[in-house]
Amino acid sequence: MQEILPLSARIDGGRLSVGGIDAEALAAEHGTPLLVYCEETIRAQARAYAKAAPGALVVYGTKAFANVAVLRVLAEEGVGADVSTLGELAFAQAAGIAGQRILFHGNNKSDEELRAAAETGATVVLDAADEPERAAAQGVRQVLVRLTPGVDAHTHQSIRTAHDESKFGLPPERALAVIADARERGLDVAGVHFHVGSQLARVDESVLAVQRLLAFCERAEDELGWRPRTLDIGGGLGIRYTRDEHVPEIDAFVEPLVAALPGDVQVILEPGRSLVGRAGVTLYRVGVVKDSGGVTYVAIDGGMSDNPRPQLYGARYEALLANRAAELPDGIFRVAGKHCESGDVLIQAAELPHPRRGDLLAVPATGAYTLAMGSTYNGVPRPAVVLVRDGAARLIRSREAVDDLLRYEEG
Asked: Active-site residue numbers?
């Protein structure tokens, strides 16, 4: 289990601790569900990217988990921000990230978003044929053009982004036309961008995408007399959610891609999940434990409102009892959430010591695309988030209350 827990996780005296703090103590102080982030792990991941790609600009895929404190930690490690909405831009600005370290993406940017990007000094990634005109009108200065390289990544179909039918980017012919149009309108076309997909478990597709990117750049030089000074090769590296999953280490994934690029270009990387995914552990309090048709259900006080990935992507997780972490499993249990949906199942088959009401269930690898994609379904307020390091815990997102849910009601 250690290989999917945060780097600072320990099991001492049969109890789980993260960042030098007992998980039960965290739950007692902050309640459950509780999302716990390990600062050591976040920093280690950022440093691994810096080592694998010296001189590259690494920008955090903010959608993985938009949080000011997390963005500040990453900014201290030299990481910028990849944003795609006004809200994500606001998080990056609140974290003190300068405009030259922000990339503004999106397949359907509003004029307001383009204007905000221009005022911030962010680089805008053009994604449609009408965007050069609109970006120029809103005062945007520097842009990249998003290329669709026609690569079908080996990952869930909902998180593939470089195939021919993707809603993102432009096929080569249209990308060339957009570069030409943007230059005619006075925009500084710094380079080209692609993104293969998310939760990538092998480097092959990304290598192919780099090859197609370089072929496109040669064509752009031949036909337009234009050479990029920046190449953005996206992110997408996966993490291990279960012990039987295998994904490349950061250096094994990044180094072959960077090595294939010209030495005179600014390289940009856009990791999200691989920066924060392993850093997160969600703590739940066990409630009802009951048998149904040969299955033993273990109900927790959260579920699909704080982690919808099992419902959206068929995602698999493992778990341990944080207060009984040294005990050996004695059965297979189905971990279910508290929402009024039969599909609200977090883990179909968790190997655990027989759970009891009041146990503390810890689910590793929940730092990316969990609470970020959460909701208040069934009127369930969203949980608190803490950042832990060296025996200290800092509340970085307050727990919502039912009164918060009623705040926007009228009449």
From this structure: 340
